Structures are given as structure tokens and as C-alpha cells.
Amino acid sequence: xDKNTVETLVKAAREARExxxxxxxxxxxxxxxxxxxxxxxxxxxxxxxxxxLTSCAERNAVFNAVAAGCRTFRAVALAGTADYTVPCxxxxxxxxxxxxxxxxxxxxxxxxxxxxLDSLLxxxxxx
Length: 127
What we know:
Active site: 58
Largest sheet: 5 strands, mixed
Cofactor: Zn(2+)
Radius of gyration: 13 Å
Shape: globular
CATH superfamily: Cytidine Deaminase, domain 2
Binding site for substrate: 45-51
Oligomer: single chain
Order of helices and strands: HEEHEHEEH
Domain CMP/dCMP-type deaminase: 4-127
Number of helices: 4
Number of domains: 1
Strand content: 15-25%
GO molecular function: cytidine deaminase activity; identical protein binding; zinc ion binding
Structural class: alpha+beta
Strand order of the largest sheet: 2-1-3-4-5
Helix content: 25-40%
């Protein structure tokens, strides 16, 4: 993936993070998912007082994309309030369901690293 595309995704994830609703953890996360249609789908974490009802940024981005009709993806970028925020297990499984091949993890200083989803979730559940 070229540098401009990665940097565009990182910027979009940071912008999405600004919309996060995280009054309990104060841990805001934004995600930017690049569809094979060329569009960027954003998501942010939305917490709930009943913690099990909280929804992560990555899943929100995937669900937004699917609701818009996109089901194939090139990469997702994450921007949290900690360096190299990685997806939780549930998000890794959802990303695996839709075969998102690359996860871009960011730092506050603008640096990033790209990880293959297979390295983050080597044996996903599948039917």
C-alpha cells in the first residue's frame, strides 16, 4: 500500500477519533476503513454504562461500510489515545470475517506501523 493512501487513512482515523463517546474509559479510538470501492468508512468507539453494550471503532467502521453496501476492504487504520492501539479480540474476528488484510497502527507523533491481520489473529473462527 502506498504511503499517501496510508497517511490518508491515518488522518481519517484521527478525525474519527474526535467523535468518540468515551466518558467512562476516556480512551477514544477512531478507525478508517478503506473499501475496494475507494471510499473510506469511519467509525469511533461508543461506550455505554452497561459495558457489554459498548461498540468499538473498528466494528463501527465495518458496520457502516456494510450498511453502505461495501463488503470488501483493503486496509483499516486505528488511532487511539495510546501508542499503537491494537484491535480487541472481537474486532479482530470481525475484521477477519471481512478479510481486511492490513491493520495500520498509529502513534500520536504521526508514525505508524502496518500489520497483517493474519499476524494479529492467526486462527480466526470461520464456518
